[in-house]
Amino acid sequence: MFERFTKDARDVVKSAFAYVDGGGGGQCVEPEHLLLALLDREGSRGSFALTALGLGERRESVREALREARRRAGLSRAEADALSGLGIDVAEIVARVEEVHGVGAMAGDTQDKRWWSGRPSFGRAAKGVLEHSLRVALARRDRHIGDEHILLALTVRPGVPAEVLADHGVTYESLTRVLYGGGEAKAG
């Protein structure tokens, strides 16, 4: 599938691996790493869309929201709310674990489980995002998968990245308007 990726999309994937290798959390590339890599991009269709939607100056806010989700062991607010409905207070659990084991203890970075290969791989959710980016590109009749398709896929897959992007005004619909027209600026 990667032969269909543009240089920008391949660079996003490489940067996501760099986040994992650099201690950015976990042993696998997850959707959060793909989003962090997209936030670092400049001069691509995905970065244009994020800037057009006002995220250019609020990228650190997105990073902070992703860090907070990692502190909750990667649970989205919707998942935390569902647990709350069962009488489980995620914030209280995080506070207790961090009191005993230190801030960020639930992020899961304490032990490297890659000893057998030495390299990170794709987590199931990240694979799903990349597969969905192919479907997005095909639906748009685009010949190649660009970083904008990865971004669009992140907005529709349930989880922390979609939630964080939506909280910052970046949805599938708003991205589609910016990237493909519909009354707003069009990516070139």
Would you write up a description of this structure?
By secondary structure, this protein is an all-alpha fold. The chain has one domain: Double Clp-N motif, CATH 1.10.1780. It has helices at residues 7-21, 31-40, 45-52, 59-71, 77-85, 90-101, 124-139, 147-156, 160-167, 172-180; strands at 28-29, 121-122. The chain has a two-stranded parallel ribbon. α1 (7-21) packs across α8 (147-156), α7 (124-139) crosses α8 (147-156) and α8 (147-156) runs antiparallel to α10 (172-180). The longest helix has 16 residues, at 124-139. The protein is globular, with a radius of gyration of 17 Å.
Short description:
This is Clp R domain-containing protein. This protein is mainly alpha-helical and 188 residues long.
SSE blueprint and pairings:
Blueprint: H1 7-21, E1 28-29, H2 31-40, H3 45-52, H4 59-71, H5 77-85, H6 90-101, E2 121-122, H7 124-139, H8 147-156, H9 160-167, H10 172-180
Parallel strand pairs: 1-2
Helix pairs in contact: 1-2, 1-8, 2-8, 3-8, 4-9, 7-8, 8-10
List keywords for this structure.
two-stranded parallel ribbon; disordered C terminus; 2 strands; Double Clp-N motif; mainly alpha; 188 residues
